[in-house]
Design brief:
The chain is of the alpha+beta class and 182 residues long. The protein is built from 3 helices and 9 strands. The protein has a 5-stranded antiparallel sheet with strand order 2-3-4-7-8, sandwiched between helices. A two-stranded parallel sheet has the order 1-9.
């Protein structure tokens, strides 16, 4: 089922998330709904807070980015209860957008490489290192679990530039090409 994506201004996007306990959520159905929602919105990542659930869960699907970012060709994963346990000192700046902030894109500086510990949809633990665009997608979605959006990471002067756009989104004065809730 395609779910509405919660837009900037919704309290759930600024609320700390709770760990997912096995058996408390129909994880297979929730992940399937999130994947259907992500595909319909033409995004590359979706976190549970973006669909109104304050859970430590996000999905990524970078397969459509494979032409520009070959490392993303088969990058489709579920991350449950993730924790970034290491990040490189080397950083990279790149323009980011977000399904919860339609019409806004800004350069964000992030570590080039990260190591993350997480559970998959079967609640098996993994530890993986990601670099380049994979690392960026994972960090962006992880931020949602920490009650952050990408504009929290931009320079103060750029924050002033997007302040009006963010206010309009929060007031419902925006349009998106996908089902949303404001």
């Amino acid at each position: 089922m395609i779910l509405p994506i919660y837009l900037y201004g919704q309290a759930v996007l600024r609320k700390p998330t709770e760990e997912v306990e096995q058996g408390t959520v129909d994880i297979k159905q929730l992940v399937a709904d999130m994947q259907e929602t992500l595909t319909a919105a033409e995004g590359c990542g979706l976190a549970a807070p973006q669909i109104g659930k304050s859970l430590r869960l996000f999905i990524v699907d970078g397969t459509e980015l494979g032409e520009d970012y070959p490392e993303c060709v088969d990058f489709k994963q579920v991350f449950i209860n993730p924790e970034i346990i290491d990040a490189s000192d080397e950083t990279v700046s790149y323009s980011e957008g977000c399904l919860s902030l339609p019409g806004i894109s800004e350069n964000v500086v992030r570590p080039k490489t990260i190591t993350i510990r997480y559970q998959d949809a079967d609640f098996k633990w993994h530890e993986e290192t990601f670099t380049d665009f994979k690392a960026r997608i994972v960090q962006h979605e992880y931020d949602h679990l920490e009650a952050h959006v990408f504009t929290d990471r931009i320079s103060p002067i750029r924050k002033q530039f997007v302040k009006g756009k963010l206010t309009n989104i929060a007031k419902g004065k925006t349009v998106a090409r996908y089902k949303y809730k404001h």
